[in-house]
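Task: fold both queries, return tokens.
Query 1:
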Amino acid sequence: MDMSQPEIPGSLGQTTLKLFEAAVNATSNGVVITDHQQPDEPIIYCNQAFMSLTGYAYEDIIGHNCRFLQADDRDQAARDILRDAIAKGEHCKIELRNYKKNGTLFWNELIMSPVKDEQGNITHFIGVQNDITGRKEAERALKSEQEQLEQRVRDRTYELEVNEAYLASIVETVRESLVVLNQELMILSVNDHFCQFFKLAEDEVRGKRLFDIGRGEWNGPELEDLLRNVLPSNNPFEGFEFDNTFAHIGRKVLVLNARQVTLRGKYQDRILLAIEDKTDERDAEQRKGDFVSIASHEMKTPLTSIKGNIQMMQRRTEKNNDGDYAGFLEKADRSIHRLEKLVSDLLDVAGLQEGNVVYDYRRFDFDKFMRDVIDSIQVAQPSHQIIISGETNKQLEGDASRLEQVVINLLNNAIKYSPEASQVHIYLSVVSNYVKVSITDYGVGIKPEDQKKIFGRFYRAGQSPGNFQGVGIGLYISNKIIQEHRGSLWVESNEGEGSVFNFTVPVDRPNIS
């Protein structure tokens, strides 16, 4: 027999033998025929494709039950299905893990059908086998990828849930009221602090326009304009002060900040409104201002009287040529002068706070003004040489007496805070339509955390009061004066390396509407 072209068993009948044999050997699917009339269903025929598929030779196959292809991997559910179908003489289609002669696993799709004789008795089974290893590997890879994707989705979902819970816990512990608005300024959500602060339940405000909650306390064209401009042009606002009387909680001073919500491209049609209560802080500032104003005015009259009496005593001492008391009276006069300066500064603070300071704007030669101020300070402060360089050649429109306060404050500070140095430098220049003054000292410098605070009322940088006396209002007054002139005052400093205080003032007074 030609082993490369196995023959169909003669028991199937000779009439169709040649035609059947040609067809079976031409197919790329493996074909086996088992004899159902013999014990253990032995293989009596296989085609060339079956041998190529399994790697076994013809003589290794004939007479064996098909189970030899599963090797030791017999615990497969599909085998039970096949066994049951053979027992019942039924057609079946299953997928099995088979193994080639070299031990390589391949997946086999087996279609098994019974062959019956003229009396209807099953004589044989024909099995058609197809190698579906590629398909199974693709399915396995797809399943693995799907499982990985599902795991990533689960991980991401868990991460989002954790992040959401984390953010929610932060939102709920923030000591500010938070409100989320849509583009129609309807309230979508609020945090617990909002409900507790305004004494409102969440269901009382959710779904309502901000301006319709309570008794309409939020109504205000300026606030509405600010909020309506947040989304269309992504125009956030900060520090808007809102002073009103609210139901249940009375008068409150609130500072509002609002911005568009941007969460990875989502929720861009929403506004986050943060509300900070500044009532106590503003009331404390008002009480402090009232105290400063009252105390300053009350001290001014007795100081004038004391100064007059001391000057009278100085004249009498000089007339009587009484040197024993002259030194004491001179020290008292200097102390009174310092106290007068303090009272004057305190009155300025009170006036600036209340907006009662009057400015006298006139044209003057700025370079000459600076030289005159420096000359007067140089006489009073001989310990440091004040060196001026640069020029502006500008006729400035401003309040010379108020700007003189600024220069004196800055120069006195430069000298006071650089006790080990001997010079202070001033540089004059023109920047666009502004004059610029830079005052450089070589002293103790200012810590970074103090540089933005030193222009506040009564704030003193972290220096020892015993070394540098003062109450921390000179820079506050100077900053207010420069702001009134529509200029800017700032500092550049490194701790231990000195400071440079700069201010700019426009040459021409801007039109203020």
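Query 1 returned. Query 2:
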Amino acid sequence: MNNITVLINKTFTRTITSQTSLLELSQEFSSSFSTPIVAAIVNGEEKSLHFKLDTDQTAISFLELQTPIGMRIYSRSLIMLLQIALKQLKYNLNFSAKHNLGDAIYCELAPEIEITANFIAQLKEKMLEIVASNTAIEYNRMPKQKACDLFHKLNLEKNIGLIKYLKQDEITYYSCLGISNYFFSPLVPFTGILKIFDVLAYRQGILIRYPKYHAPTVLQPYKNQTKLADIFEEASNWAKLIECDTVSDLNNKVVSQEFNDIISISEALHEKKIAEIADKIKSDSLHKRLILIAGPSSSGKTTFTKRLNIHLRVNGLKPANLSIDDYFLSRSHTPRKSNGDYDFESIHAIDLKLFNEHLCRILRGERVKIPTFNFVSGCTEYRGNSIQLEPGQPILVEGIHALNEQLTASIAAEYKLKIYVSAITGISLDPYNRIRTTDCRLLRRIVRDSQFRAHDARETLRLWPSVRAGEEENIFPYQEDADIMFNTSLLYELLVIKQYATELLNQVTSEQDEYSEARRLLNLLNHVLEIDKFNIPDNSILKEFIG
């Protein structure tokens, strides 16, 4: 075999034998990490540690558990651990990893499995036994047709519906203790790494809990998110209504030219839900006059607010809109982050005193002169804008802090209706490969930033960790305080987003730090067929992103 040279973690150069695995190479560096190495970035792409190196001048960055990517790999590997345990306990292997609820994966098992305390104890004990065995999770490659034949024998029909549309000739899959399954991203190399987890009965299924990446050796106390679970359940029910709860199903609909009904039903469900929210506001319009709307980045808040405004007008109301952004403090009073940058996402970047004073006066029926914030000069200006509400009319306030009580502290709770808006993904690639809600929002943002903000995909990817940190601090802690949650996700949206996002992500080059994330998203989109955008209604939330 030939010798090849590799660059490790941008620091160490090593000459190794061709076909050396990442696992072998990682053993030399494992003592340099505080937690186990679980995968690597090789020339900008996530790879299993079983991957064998065969190219000179290969750049390798090892990924330990104590990283966001490392914990994503860890949580994904728990799905295979669950599958192995069910097989060894001789239960029906058909289950579905539906979605995340905080630091847990919600899974629905086969209907005939009775989820009792005894079952949970038995399942957890078996999973711990498999962890203790420290068995290798093998990485395999196979021609696509042979992989389809294998999955047919294993009764994994939805895997077949997913991979048969992939353009590559070979498929990678993972095997361990008699279980084989397709995962579109790496798993940990050994079951022994999966030491920290828990299993809880939850609703019609179970929760598989895992640690947070910054504290990978402990499980944090679990916070039940009832309202978020309700909206995920609603999204799942919508998907079942359309008979498309996986991308595998969706791709089959595209091939059979049945996707127009999916678009129509998805949009009609949105319209129905917004109308119901408007009816609720109308029914209590004498009291619930302050309508507060919040949600994370690229959740579709702007379009939702516009459509809600229209439905309220249909109901005979005349809502006013008040923008939190116009109440920013001047630059000289804006708080700063620890690195010295302005912290525009802090609630203390808002003139809370003035905002509350204006809200109280508006709700009393006074005419109030409204400021406009000049983002160029960093100062407040008054340009003649004003608001005066007629008796019984509502005011809509949209922004990231809208659910935070500090924003509207002067208004009594009985006058507020809080609405949380987010894109809650109701569809998975297949029963074992989830699509993260965060990824759908990121793809939306990449397309929108290109269309309307002159940002390329690299810039959006560069800023995304900061955006996510702001959401974790300012939005997610308050989502359970919402009176209503609205899901802006559309089952068909990835079929449309793909054509825009693929082109943009392909422009991120291998020498750029954002390349590996771009390749991961491209790998996700690779599983999705695409449709043309021209059948999408003009008022669709999706138009906020694609134009």
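Both queries returned. Flag for query 2: The mean pLDDT is 91.
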